[in-house]
Amino acid sequence: MKIDGVPYRSVWVDETDRSTVRIFDQTRIPATLDILELRTRDQVADAIVTMQVRGAPLIGAVAAYGLALSLRVDASDDAMERDAAFLAATRPTAINLRWAIARMLEHLRPLDPSLRVQAAYEEAGRICDEDVAQNEAIGRHGLGLITQIAGAKTGDRKTVNILTHCNAGWIATVDWGTALAPIYMAHDAGIDVHVWVDETRPRNQGAALTAWELGRHGVRHTVVVDNAGGHLMQHGMVDLVIVGTDRVTRQGDVANKIGTYLKALAAADNNVPFWVALPSTTIDWTVRDGVAEIPIEERSEAEVTMVHGVDAHGNPASVRVTPAGSAAANPAFDVTPARLVTGLLTERGTCDATEAGLLSLFPEHA
Questions:
Q1: How many angstroms separate the CA atoms of 73 and 77, rounded?
Q2: Does 161 appear as a known binding residue?
Q3: Is 91 annotated as contributing to ligand binding?
Q4: 276 touches 353 (CB < 8 A)
Q5: What pLDDT, on the 0 to 100 scale, is given for residue 333?
Q6: For the chain, which terminus, N or C, has the lower number of CB atoms within 10 Å?
Q7: Could you check whether 2-129 and 139-365 share the same CATH topology?
Q8: Which tens digits make up the pLDDT trace of 164-189?
Q9: Is residue 140 packed enough to be buried (19+ CB in 10 Å), middle (13-18) or exposed (0-12)?
Q10: Which pLDDT value is given to residue 149?
């Protein structure tokens, strides 16, 4: 995607100096657009833990490059397995992280240690290229959904109103995004599209990142508080909900940013289609019951008790919003049962949120 006319991916390596992996510091957006230079395994792990880099597909891609960086120091079998396990443990819910590390190991284990560094960079690059292609395909399939809704509108109400939660745009992937890819394509195709952007407490990825992305691309949008979604649906102001996901089970349950489940309940109560966009790398074929089996990351209570932003002068600022001494809980994700999901939007097309639906697109996992 482009920022002020300049094309970027969300992670890149200068081929003339592969000792440095570059990402955008997502904790600084929208105040500033800072580029982080990661040169060690520990720097990559810290960027993932602190959410300087976030978004399930992007975490996987960056972790793959993190393993390549570690191999520059020690490419032995023991070191590679140790560093891979260290990176894989940085965040528990997003399956893409462990998928990418497992893929890297499968590719690298048979190789002589002297060949592993070059091979690691090449495989990480392929992971990135495939993510871009998958997300572009998701966008094309999702465009059909939006086009269908737009075609059914009559009279003066031509705007297609879409609600999304958290950030599943290009900054959360290598490029294009998942939930936002169809929206970008609809906008570029001339469809009158408007996006309701959930703020997404406690880290405000919607208010900060999704709004920033959409604004840079020229997509009309409005930021709303997390609890406004049901009200908007009750009054006919939402035509479609599209969200991303950090893990989808074999039977179609969806783990996504905390608050997604409540949006799905409201959508079901108001007959609003609720779609989940994902690359197939986000499907966990080993898990069936999402509520019982998907680990939910519990993050620092400081993310709840403190609000971070910029002051009137554009300087970073933090303020406490709870009484001193009040405890806070901070589950980062929730699970939306498959029965509340209208359909899944993948690089191979759309399907029901069921095991049969997923296997119709991915029969190799039968």
A1: 12
A2: no
A3: yes
A4: yes
A5: 97
A6: C
A7: no
A8: 999 999 999 999 999 999 999 999 99
A9: middle
A10: 97
In the DSSP assignment, the letter for residue 90 is S
Question: Contact, 213 vs 173, CB < 8 A?
Answer: no
- pLDDT for residue 343: 98
CATH tag for 2-129 (out of 1.20.120.420, 3.10.450.50, 2.60.40.60, 2.60.40.10): 1.20.120.420
List the domain boundaries for the chain.
2-129, 139-365
Q: What is the DSSP letter of 331?
A: B
Q: Is 135 annotated for ligand binding?
A: no
Check 83, 175, 198, 246 and give the catalytic one.
246
Is the CB of residue 173 less than 8 Å from the CB of residue 10?
yes
State in words which class domain 139-365 has.
alpha beta
- Backbone φ and ψ for 285, nearest 5 degrees, come out as -75, -10
Q: Which residue numbers in the chain have pLDDT < 50? A: none
4 is catalytic: no
Q: How far apart are CA 24 and CA 71, in angstroms?
A: 23
Strands laid side by side in the 193-198 sheet: 220-224, 193-198, 160-164, 240-243, 274-277, 343-346, 349-351
